[in-house]
């Protein structure tokens, strides 16, 4: 595996942005010890239902807040109080802002340094999403959300947890520009292909006849920031959304999740609609697994030997770099890449195809 510095991504080791850190159902089972962006982190759900993410190690004696389940307050279910959490060792209590607000055996003032870093966390589409900024700045764009998630006709995904991949996430993003792998890797060569960069958004539009399904497969796919991909896909009368989330674990190591959201024929969806949706997700996972398996076995492409009929890998990497730099410098990257880009020898999307994403990507 190769690291951010080897790809010359920018001053920071990890990118700024919204990232999936857990599935909501996992967090319902209790506090979690997680590791992302090279840090051990404590994730829990407060009694009001809000998810909270704090640095893991208690400033008192460096106990991990959520990694051990042996302490009495954990066993008797008293670790979470309101939206605060008590350290399992001596019971110091930390609020969702990371400040210690109670030491159970002490009347005097609480030391000012008894504070943990707290990270913005939101729940969207069954995922717990965290905003990461290496300098602790607040979010400068919103976490992605699909309106269909709150429409009862759409069957929610149960995420596929694909685990860790020893590849830098920049190479996952390369897939967006990769017009020419669609035939050899996925059996679905594209007839039209386009990428578009719009500030923190990276859009790909492509379509062609799928050898397996024997019908036209069209997709509009977009990254909202560097970590979360959504894709609207239509083939035959099936309409579906796919989610692929990548979150840096350590430099050069990434964790990946996958899901598919499908429209049922009935409201509420029947058992058979749900079984159909699971089948669609399994099919989408199979297609994605073709990439995943290639990634598992490839060497790092620190530079792509890009030829004129390839997609715009280099532009995609420039877009990606904005997240490794200060937000004030993002405009410089936008100037270099914003707009639509085409691939030599491939058509551009028609008006009819563009209707697929009307009003969707913002
Ligand atoms: S180590 Fe956390 S309260 Fe003592
Ligand atoms: Fe792919």
Automatic annotation (TrEMBL):
This protein's record includes keyword Transit peptide: no
Name used for this protein in its record: Rieske 2Fe-2S domain-containing protein
Gene3D superfamilies: Naphthalene 1,2-dioxygenase Alpha Subunit, Chain A, domain 1, Rieske [2Fe-2S] iron-sulphur domain
Keyword field contains Iron: yes
Top-level taxon: Bacteria
Assigned keywords, A-Z: 2Fe-2S, Iron, Iron-sulfur, Metal-binding, Oxidoreductase
PROSITE patterns to which the protein is assigned, alphabetical: RIESKE
Organism whose genome encodes this protein: Zhongshania borealis
């Amino acid at each position: 595996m190769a690291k951010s510095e080897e790809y010359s991504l920018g001053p920071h080791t990890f990118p700024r942005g919204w990232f999936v850190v857990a599935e909501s159902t996992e967090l319902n089972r209790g506090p979690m010890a997680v590791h992302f962006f090279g840090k051990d982190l404590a994730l829990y759900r407060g009694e009001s239902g809000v998810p909270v993410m704090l640095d893991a190690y208690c400033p008192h004696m460096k106990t991990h807040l959520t990694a051990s389940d042996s302490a009495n307050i954990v066993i008797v279910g008293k670790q979470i109080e309101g939206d605060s959490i008590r350290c399992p060792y001596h019971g110091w209590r930390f609020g969702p802002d990371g400040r210690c607000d109670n030491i159970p055996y002490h009347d005097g003032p609480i030391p000012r340094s008894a504070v943990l870093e707290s990270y913005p966390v939101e729940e969207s589409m069954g995922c717990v999403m965290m905003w990461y900024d290496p300098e602790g700045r607040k979010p400068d764009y919103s976490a992605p959300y699909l309106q269909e998630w709150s429409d009862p006709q759409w069957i929610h995904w149960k995420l596929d947890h694909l685990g860790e991949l020893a590849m830098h996430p920049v190479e996952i993003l390369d897939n967006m520009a990769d017009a020419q792998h669609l035939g050899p890797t996925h059996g679905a060569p594209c007839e039209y292909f386009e990428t578009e960069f719009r500030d923190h958004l990276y859009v790909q539009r492509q379509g062609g006849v799928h050898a397996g399904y024997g019908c036209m497969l069209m997709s509009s796919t977009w990254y909202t920031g560097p970590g979360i991909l959504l894709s609207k896909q239509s083939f035959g009368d099936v309409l579906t959304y796919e989610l692929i989330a990548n979150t840096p674990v350590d430099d050069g190591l990434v964790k990946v999740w996958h899901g598919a959201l499908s429209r049922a024929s009935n409201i509420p969806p029947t058992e058979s609609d749900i079984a159909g949706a699971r089948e669609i997700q399994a099919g989408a996972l199979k297609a994605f697994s073709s990439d995943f398996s290639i990634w598992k076995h490839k060497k790092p492409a620190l530079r792509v030997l890009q030829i004129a009929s390839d997609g715009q890998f280099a532009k995609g990497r420039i877009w990606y770099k904005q997240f490794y730099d200060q937000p004030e410098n993002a405009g410089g990257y936008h100037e270099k890449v914003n707009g639509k880009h085409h691939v030599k020898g491939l058509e551009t999307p028609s008006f009819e195809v563009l209707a697929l994403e009307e009003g969707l990507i913002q």
